[in-house]
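Deliverable D4.2, example record:
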Amino acid sequence: QVQLVESGGGSVQAGGSLRLSCAASGYTAKIRCMSWFRQAPGKEREGVATIYTGGGSILYADSVKGRFAISQDNAANTLWLQMNSLKPEDTATYLCAANIQMCRLDRLAFYNYWGQGTQVTVSS
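Output generated by the structure prediction step:
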């Protein structure tokens, strides 16, 4: 099993920045892809950013391109999401997810493991 624990959420004003972290533990060697998703109240969960653990492709949702950056430290089993120029519409619970297949932001079913989430609130 793999356990994922997010941290770093909070409340900021529009234009501000936050850095989210996701600590992975357990049998992490089988993980191929790590991703960030978010879910706002009353809305569907949406993919934000994804990265292959072996290096290579990084994908972002169009809504966050140029503002968010995903990165990882495999030795420390940690995933980050640097969020800059935050907007009120970025307000959501942000969840870390992992899967053993491939990186897809539009296929929630691919993801075997999910964290509990961390709340991000952006005020105008």
